[in-house]
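**User:** My hope is that you can spare some time for a protein that puzzles me. I have put the entry right below:
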Amino acid sequence: MTAVVLSFTALTACGAGNNAQSLGVKPDTASATVDTISVQNANVITQPKAGAAGPAVVSATIFNAGTKDQTLDSVTLPGGGTVKLSAAGGPGAITVPAEGSVVIGGKGNPSAVIDNGQSLTGNIGGVQDVVFRLSDTGEVKLQAFVVPASADFADFGPSSLPPQPASPSTTPAGSASPNSSGSPSEAPSGQPGGEGETAPDSPSDASSAPANG
């Protein structure tokens, strides 16, 4: 079994502080390799704001360079809560195909959900120990970044997020909407097109009237 390789350059990038992104620093993602299994781009994605109640998720891409399929049996966060795994179509095993990969997290992909992720929001900007257990390889350990479900991570974050405030309406209540031409829909009475218009006598009617005398 080969040694675990951790991406410590990512931890160095965090030295700029929780707002490192504002300084133009883009840290590497956490990764680790054991035997033929490589876990890359690992993150713990929480609710958008610290202290917010709701689930959190683990996202990662798992590569299998071997010639045999493996299953992801569990993901654990020592001291960080219980993780529930689900296949892409619902409950079931998550398979990492031979000479292939599987993405954990995001729409249409297998998921790893921490039901009560509120405590993890207090560690946004830090790291969290995560252990991936594969059927043949065993444990792959790394330290994943704890990030909020916003910006680049919004599509991979928890499916249950606080509702967003509705935007105010720009049309004043009770105001009438003009028609497509911007003019009244009916002409005034007595004018062409109006209900009060009187049609002139037809010349043919005058000629057919009998003459007196």
In short: The helical segments are 8-13, 203-208.
